[in-house]
Design goal:
- By secondary structure, the protein is α/β, with parallel strands linked by helices.
- 42% of the residues lie in helices and 22% in strands.
- Strands 3-4-5-2-1-7-6 form a seven-stranded mixed β-sheet.
- β4 and β5 form a beta hairpin.
- α1 packs across α3 and α6 runs antiparallel to α7.
- The radius of gyration is 15 Å and the shape is globular.
- 31% of the residues are buried.
């Protein structure tokens, strides 16, 4: 089970620059689907990488799906050399995404976000149009399944 409040508190408390995407973003926009992880697009600046490490290190991050005992250390150099990381932590699963489908990086997405308050925490969340585009670009069955619902939400929002 994911401690959404705990994961977001750790990241926001460390002032990590991030954008909520994926299932949490879909839920914030009104989707009824459940999600089992937190997906974030993160800024890849050196300072932000340090903040990510500081936020997650106490929660024992490990590569999701990797065999137990496989050497892994989440540090700035690991983040710098990689791009997207699917991790488990004591607080639950998190996907750290340097980029999402369609070429969406933190810098290209930041102007396509809204400010949200979640568990009393201020966060940036991908806007509904950008989320729909990202789900379509990802093209995975689970992303395509939620598209109809997100498009219906957009249609209803535009009517109001």
């Amino acid at each position: 089970m994911v401690d959404f409040r705990g994961l977001l508190s750790a990241l926001v408390g460390a002032e990590v620059e991030l954008i909520l995407v994926g299932g949490v973003a879909a839920t914030l926009h009104g989707s009824s689907r459940l999600t089992t992880d937190v997906d974030v697009v993160y800024r890849r600046s050196s300072e932000n990488l340090k903040r990510i490490v500081a936020a997650l290190a106490p929660h024992e991050p490990y590569l999701r799906g990797a065999p137990p005992g496989l050497p892994f250390r989440l540090d700035v150099e690991t983040l710098r050399r990689g791009l997207n990381f699917t991790l488990t932590t004591k607080l639950g699963s998190i996907d750290l995404l340097g980029e999402i489908g369609g070429g969406g990086t933190y810098e290209t997405l930041i102007d396509r976000t809204i400010s949200v308050t979640l568990f009393g925490l201020q966060c940036r969340c991908i806007d509904l149009d950008a989320l729909i585009e990202a789900k379509r670009a990802a093209g995975r069955p689970k992303d395509l399944e939620v598209l109809a619902e997100l498009e219906a939400i957009r249609e209803e929002t535009e009517r109001l």
